[in-house]
Amino acid sequence: MYLLALDSETTAMTFNDLHHQQSPLLLCNVWDVASANIAQKLGFTAIGTSSAAIAAARGLDDGEQLSFDDLIQVVAQIKQHCSLPLSVDIEAGYSQNPQTIVDHILSLNKLGVVGINIEDSVVKQQRELRPANDFAATLSFIKNQVTQREIEIFINARSDVFLVGCKDAVSLAKQRMQLYIDAGADGIFLPGIEQLEHIKELSKHCSVPLNVMCMPHLANFAQLQAAGVKRISMGNFVFNNMQQHLESQLASIKQSQSFATLF
User: Fold this and answer.
1) Are strands 187-189 and 154-158 parallel, antiparallel or unpaired?
2) Residue 35's CB: how many other CB atoms inside 10 A?
3) The whole model's pTM is what?
């Protein structure tokens, strides 16, 4: 048990350090053991689960439609077969109760998880932002609880101001990310942001590592590095692309009545 704890702590420190290199951390988003093993084989330095991809692979929508117990099972399988530092997307925490969210994080940490994403939006009829102060209070509670337990886990606070299409997204992002940093966030994640000018502006006001996600018009990695980005995620886009390729391959087999396209 001591060796496991020591190994987890070392991995957590390694994961944290990856956010403070000259070049951004390219986080490979995975959804099962096979995708995690490919990431490790190709030399990625860290992986993170994509909640949307995991849900879609099981015929579910994103937004905590996958149960936390099922998520834990996926994470345990990945950790059993892959030694890369793993961050887990816990969406909105799978609860409105901060203590329950902490319990979820502790369960993940026991499996060797060294980072989490937690978002400031909830999915009801559609995705809606939580009040910023309420989310900041949740972050503060989480940070205090893990600190008291001397647990090393990277808290990546995700703000969905761009994802939900807020009119004053840049201004709102500045306000929210400062609240979240003050509450103890180790990183800020702004999925949906695409314009390089916005990324540059926000990175100037972000005192912790800034994380952006794959988008159709996102700048290349060198430009993102110059703009101050420290972490780049894939989201569910690789999974979606793979599904499209699978559909194309199966359609070709059916149409040609041959397996030639596979070789």
Assistant:
1) parallel
2) 21
3) 0.94
